[in-house]
Amino acid sequence: MTKSLRLRPEHIQQQRFHADTAGHALEQVLAAVAAGAVRRGVSRLVAAGGETSGAVVEALRIGSMAVGPEAATGVPWMSGQVAGRTVNVLLKSGNFGSDDIFTAAWAVLG
Question: Domain holding 85: CATH number?
Answer without folding.
Answer: 3.40.980.20
